[in-house]
Specification:
The complex is a heterodimer of chains A (about 230) and B (about 110).
Chain A lengths: L17 H36 L1 H10 L2 H26 L3 H32 L21 H34 L9 H26 L10
Chain B lengths: L7 H21 L7 H21 L7 H28 L14 H4 L2
Helix pairs in contact in B: 1-2
The chains are: A mainly alpha (about 230), B mainly alpha (about 110).
């Protein structure tokens, strides 16, 4: 009677070994992320064109955003990327408690990002009548360029909204991962769900790394106020 | 197992570098450099992206196959932007808004 070698936990039998399985998982995730790049890419390309067409309007719009919150949120998101990377590292060295702790820290930072975004920035924009479709008011001091300021805010809300949607999905994924990590599903040989979810989280971080300068910074902050 | 274990110190170092670059790009936005403001902001964003991709996303330690896939994806994104801009920059077919007066040549406004 042939004795079957027991599979290591998490090993799917169609793969040669754990390393091949891990590489296949990462590669598949990268292919998905590249479709995401094209998804966001359409928005970025149209932003570049409309910014060039209506530069004065976009500069006025950019000035109305609060750069402090943009910078703070960038730092928060970079921090969450660090804790995500450390969560994966904890799995690689087989520390279960640290995995759960770092995943929780990532979720807290991600939630903090969304909290700042919604309660301070978006709410403030709503109060200031800067949400297109929800009582947007074109101010007389903007002059002729004012006509296209709503266009900037359309881009702002679509881009940050799509990014926030990705963050919310990421928080859901992190919740599942925390439970899996708590139950000891990951070990130094098998941690692919953590690895590919980490790739997703870092990708969302990179999208913000570009949104921050595009929306908040390159409107010429040095002009001073602008509105 | 041959997966690469990145030292915690490296992760912390990348984190600190990303924070410093964020402070730098925010600071530069308040200095008038003309068209170079945009260049600086995007260049710093690119550096930050590379740090995240190479270290946090482990691409530095990934297989050549993964790297080729990523480069192919980035190439297609570059085609998306470049060819769209090529039309916009050369054909002037975007509708001109009313009440805008004489528009400058597109290339001078593009920075």
């Amino acid at each position: 009677m042939a004795v079957q070698q027991p599979h290591p936990p998490g090993f799917a039998h169609q793969f040669e070994d754990m390393q091949q399985q891990r590489e296949a998982g990462s590669l598949g995730m990268w292919v998905f992320l590249l479709t995401e790049l094209m998804f966001f890419g359409g928005l970025f390309a149209s932003y570049i064109i409309y910014r060039a067409l209506y530069l004065p309007s976009f500069e006025i719009g950019s000035h109305l955003l609060e750069v402090e919150f943009g910078a703070l949120n960038t730092a928060v998101l970079i921090g969450s990327s660090l804790t995500m990377a450390l969560a994966i590292r904890s799995a690689q060295v087989g520390r279960r408690g640290a995995q759960v702790g770092f995943l929780m820290a990532t979720m807290i930072l991600g939630a903090a990002f969304l909290f700042f975004k919604f309660t301070f920035e978006w709410h403030h924009d709503y109060i200031e009548h800067l949400v297109p479709g929800f009582g947007f008011v074109i101010r007389p001091e903007w002059g002729a360029a004012g006509a296209h300021v709503p266009l900037f805010f359309c881009f702002y809300f679509f881009m940050t909204g799509l990014h926030a949607l990705h963050m919310i999905i990421g928080l859901g994924i992190l919740t599942v991962l925390s439970v899996m990590a708590h139950r000891g599903r990951f070990n130094p040989a098998y941690y692919s769900p953590l690895e590919v979810s980490g790739l997703y989280w870092h990708f969302v971080d990179i999208v913000w790394i570009f949104l921050f300068p595009l929306l908040y910074l390159i409107g010429g902050r040095y002009i001073g106020g602008g509105h | 197992m041959s997966e690469h274990l990145v030292p915690t110190k490296t992760y912390i170092g990348i984190f600190v570098a990303l924070l410093l670059l964020t402070a730098l790009t925010t600071g530069i936005a308040y200095v008038d450099l003309g068209a170079w403001n945009t260049v600086a902001a995007l260049a710093i964003a690119m550096v930050k992206m590379l740090l995240v991709v190479l270290f946090f996303m482990h691409v530095k330690y990934s297989s050549g196959l993964t790297k080729v896939f990523i480069l192919a994806g980035v190439l297609f994104f570059a085609i998306l932007v470049t060819l769209t801009l090529a039309d916009e920059l050369t054909r002037h077919w975007s509708p001109t808004p009313s009440g805008w007066g004489a528009l400058l040549p597109f290339s001078t406004r593009f920075y």
